[in-house]
Amino acid sequence: MGRNLTETPRQETPRQETPRQETGDKRQKAKGKRQKVKGSFVLPTPYTPHPTPHTPHPTPHTLHPTPHTPHPTPHTPHPTPNPQDLIAIS
Length: 90
Hints:
The chain has 2 helices and no strands. It has helices at residues 20-33, 83-89.
């Protein structure tokens, strides 16, 4: 359709080889870091899990046994007493 079906061949570029001496020196340095002991092999310490694994809570966190219900009657402030009523009572 709109694609170009002809492929252009890839040209491989020749790799430049480095002198063997430089590569050999690097390998020797890496080898020198690792010391091999003949006749014994020590395994790394195996992973030990946490001694006390987390146990889930007996009741799920999302369900509360008694859901909160609002107070049935909200507090209404007491009306301020009328001074005339106080005189009439006494």
